[in-house]
Amino acid sequence: MIYEETYRYLLRHVNSTEFDTCLYSVLHMDWDGVIQSPIHQMAKGIGTTEKYLRKIIKKFTSSPKDGVRRILIPAEQEMGKYQFNLGPTGSFTNRKDRYCKKYRFFYTDAFRNLPMAAKRLVLMAAFKMSVNKYEDIFLNYEDIIQLGGTLAKRNQILETMNIINQALGDIMTFTVASSTFTRKEILFVSFQTGTLQDYLENRTERLMLRKTLYEAGFPNHIEDKVCVELERVGKYIFRSFQQATKAPIKDDLLKLARFIYRSSLQKLGSALNSNKHLLAEPKEASAYFSTIVYNEVLKQMATYAHQAACIKGLIEREHFHREISGKSLERHVDYSEVQEHIEPIRAKHALAMDIHKTLNKWCEDWVISRVKSVTGTNENELAKKRVLTDGQTISDYLGYLKKHTYEQLEQHMAVYQHVLHGDHVLNVLRQKKEAMHSYFAIQKDRIKK
Fold first, then answer.
1. CB 47 within 8 A of CB 41
2. What is the predicted pLDDT for the residue at 172?
3. What is the average per-residue pLDDT within 215-220?
4. Residues near 31 by beta carbon (within 8 Å), at least 6 away in sequence
5. What spatial distance separates the first Cα and last Cα of the chain, rounded to whole Å?
6. Can you name the residues that pair with 137 across neighbouring β-strands?
7. CA–CA dist 318, 321 (Å, integer)
C-alpha cells in the first residue's frame, strides 16, 4: 500500500521519475521493506535508464533534508539491495494506518508520461478514493494550492485537469463543480466503476516463497491458495515478534524472524516430496508448516539461552578482564575501570537474555493456542473449533500435541548434555517441560468435566 507518510512525501519532495521509483518500490518490496528487484529490472519497470536510476538511489540514500528521513537504506544482509524507508512495511501495519491502494493505472505508460503536477493531482484523488472507499470524490482548491509549485493557481489546476482528462479520461474524469453547502468551487473527480478494486497486489513474498521451496528440493508449482496459508504463518512470525519487541532488541528479533521463516520454508520444501497430500488441503499445509516454525523457534530459544550462559561465564572472569584492561592501558586498573571494560559484554548478555525470554514466551503461546483451538477459551466454548481428523477426539489431539512438545524439548536437551555452559540450557528446558506437563494435566482434567 501507499501509506500516508509515502503519500505526503510524493506530494512535495520528488520529481517525476523519483515519483515512479517510489511507486515501483512499494510494489516490489518484501515484508522487511527490501526491494527485491535488480537495478536493470527496476529501471525497465520505471521506464528510465540504469544510469539515472543510480542517481536517484544515491539521492534517496544520502543524508535527509527538510526533516525527511532517508528514503532508501542499503539492506544489511542483501548486497546490492535497498530497503524502502517510508511508511510501515507489509507485516507491520495496523487498522489505523491510512493508505492508497496500488491502483493499476499508476503503473501504466499513460500515467508515467504525465507531468509532475498531474501525477500529484491524480495521487490526491486516488488517496481520497481509497480512504473513502467511494469512486466519486471531490477536492478543495485550498488543499491543492497548499502544495505550491505548478498547482499554486486556479488556472494552473484547470490546465492540469485537462491534461489528466486527455491522458486518463477512460479511467477518471476531473470537472469543476460547486459545493452543495459552501457554494465554493471544487474539483469533482469521477472514477470509472470498478477502479476502486482494480489494484495490483505485491507478490514479492509469494515469489520468494516459491523460489525457496524450489531451491530446497520441491520442483512442483505451489498453488496460490496454499501460498496464502503459508504466508499467514509467516506474517504471524513477523507480527508476533514485532509486538513482543522492546526497542533494544527490535532489529535483532526482526532479522531472526526472517531467518526462522526462511529456514522453516527450506525444511518444508525438503519434506513436501514425501508429503504431497498436504498441498490438497491448504489448512493442513499451514498447520504442518506452523509446527516446523515452532520447532525452529524452540531451537533458537535454546541457542540464545546457551549464548547468554556463555557470555555470563565470560563476565564472571574478573581477573581475565582486569588483565586485558591493564594491558590495554599499560597500568594497574581499579574495580570501576574493569566494570567499564565489561559493560559492552553485559549489554550483549542482556540482549541474548531478552531474545531468549521473548522466544520462550512465543513457544508457550504457540502450544497454548493449539490447545485452545480444540478446547475453546472457556467452559462455554468447549467445542471442536479445530477440524480433527476422522475418529480423532480432543483428548487424542492433546495427547499428540503433548507428545510432540516433549519430544522436541528432549531433542534439544540431548544436544546440550555435554556442552560447556549447557547446564543452564538444560535447566531452562526442564522447567519448560514441567510447566507444559502441568498445563496439559489441567487441560486433561478440564475436558473430562
1. no
2. 96
3. 93
4. 89, 90, 91, 205, 234, 235, 238, 258
5. 49
6. 189
7. 5
Q: What is the pLDDT of residue 97?
A: 79
Q: Where are the beta strands (DSSP E) in 230-315?
A: none
pLDDT tens-digit series, residues 159-194: 999 999 999 999 999 998 877 777 788 899 999 999
To which H or E segment does residue 190 belong? strand 185-191
Distances in Å between the Cα of 311 and the Cα atoms of 68, 230, 301, 328, 346 are 40, 36, 15, 21, 8
**Given the C-alpha cell 512535495, which residue does it identify?**
12
Decide if 6 contacts 22 (C-beta within 8 A).
yes
Query: Over the Cα atoms of the chain, what is R_g?
Result: 28
The alpha carbon of residue 146 and the mean position of all alpha carbons in its chain are separated, in whole angstroms, by 34
Asked if pLDDT for residue 384 goes beyond 60, the answer is no
Angle between helices 422-448 and 282-315 (to 10 degrees): 140
Stated pTM of the model: 0.83
The cell 521473548 sits on which residue? 358
Chain center to CA of 294: 18
Backbone angles phi, psi at 60, to 5 degrees: -70, -25
The residue whose grid cell reads 494435566 is 441
- The SS3 call for residue 372 is helix
C-alpha cell at position 377: 477459551
Contact call for residues 266 and 216 (beta carbons, < 8 A): yes
pLDDT 10s digits, 263-288: 999 999 999 999 999 999 999 999 99
- Are 135 and 191 spatial neighbours (Cβ–Cβ below 8 Å)? yes
Q: Where are the alpha helices (DSSP H) in 67-222?
A: 109-112, 116-132, 141-145, 154-168, 204-215
Strand partners, 73: 83
Contacts of 226 (CB under 8 A, 6+ apart): 279, 282, 285
Q: Which residues contact 108 (CB under 8 A, 6 or more apart)?
A: none
